[in-house]
Amino acid sequence: MRALAVLLAALPILLLPACSTGGQKTEKAPASTATTTAPPWAKGMKTVREDRLPPEARRTLELIAKGGPFPYDKDGSVFGNYENRLPRQARGYYHEYTVPTPGARNRGARRIITGDHAERYYTGDHYQTFEAVVQP
Q1: How far apart are CA 28 and CA 5, in angstroms?
Q2: Is the peptide bond before 69 cis (omega within 30 degrees of 0)?
Q3: Closest by alpha carbon to 94, among 113, 70, 109?
Q4: Where are the beta strands (DSSP E) in the chain?
């Protein structure tokens, strides 16, 4: 009888981890993963909160919001999405902006890509991977 009482007393402690993760083991989310709900256009994509982007990327987003001026001639040019890593859209839907890379002698590999419906994506590796930029 005493063993049953101890087991019943310990049961909530044993079940607590299963309740918090739906019974599944999960890895700790990387610091860049957003904790907010992703917008519909970002569904299924890795996300990054705007406040977790490099400071140069946040500055580029500020320039985009103001309409410029932009430091690079190619800023605002059409992004072709030739790698097909973003949702398929008609040509001209996406535009790209340079995110300066400290120490780089050229434009570097970092970009912000915008979509016609306020979508924003960040790539730090020249279009190999993208993260949907979400508000905190």
Answers
A1: 34
A2: yes
A3: 113
A4: 47-49, 77-78, 94-98, 111-115, 120-123, 131-134
Residues with Cβ < 8 Å from 101, sequence gap 6 or more?
Answer: 56, 107, 108, 109, 110
Q: Which pLDDT tens digit goes with each residue over 103-113? A: 888 999 999 99
Question: Which residues does the annotation mark as catalytic?
Answer: 96, 126
Residue corresponding to tokens 């709900």: 37
**Amino acid (one-letter) located at 50:** E
Residuewise pLDDT in 10s, the chain (136 residues): 554 444 445 444 444 444 444 444 333 334 444 455 778 888 889 999 999 999 999 999 999 999 999 999 999 999 999 999 999 999 999 999 999 999 888 999 999 999 999 999 999 999 999 999 998 7
- Note the residue count of the chain: 136
DSSP 3-state assignment of 94? Answer: strand
Q: Phi and psi (nearest 5°) for 60?
A: -60, -40
